[in-house]
């Protein structure tokens, strides 16, 4: 977290007012890409090509976050990037395991509960980002 007394600048980064706004915009782009993926994923039950579209949006959101995290260094919302990266990494395991269970046992439970967990984590992140609050800060609840 950045202190108001922290005065030295990091080479190659924007000054703080612009850096906060750019970090917020980049986090919004990440959340939008990942939320769109989750919202259209139930359509994969209707037509299989929606799964590819979901995967494309999901990976784009995760990679965008990974690329833009260094630019959000010491901003108010730097921990939103940590949240999105954690969600992205956990989703790889959950979706992989869920797909394996669907293939082997026709059990959709893990994918359903993964979808709920991912939607909750991203929804809380979008809510806190809208209020311009850090994700993990106790006073932001």
Describe the overall structure:
This protein is mainly α and 141 residues long. It has helices at 16-40, 49-68, 78-105, 109-130. The longest helix is centred in the middle third of the chain and has 28 residues, at 78-105. The protein starts with 15 loop residues before the first helix and ends in an 11-residue tail after the last helix.
Q: Please give the largest β-sheet.
A: none
Mean pLDDT: 86
What are the low-pLDDT stretches, counting only 5+ consecutive residues below 50? Answer: 1-5
Distinct helical segment count: 4
How far apart the termini lie comes to 17 Å
User: What portion of residues is helical?
Assistant: 55-70%
C-alpha Rg (nearest Å): 17 Å
The total strand number stands at 0
C-alpha geometry = elongated
Order of helices and strands: HHHH
Strand content bin: under 5%
Pairing-aware structural class of the strands and helices?
Answer: mainly alpha
Oligomerization state:
single chain
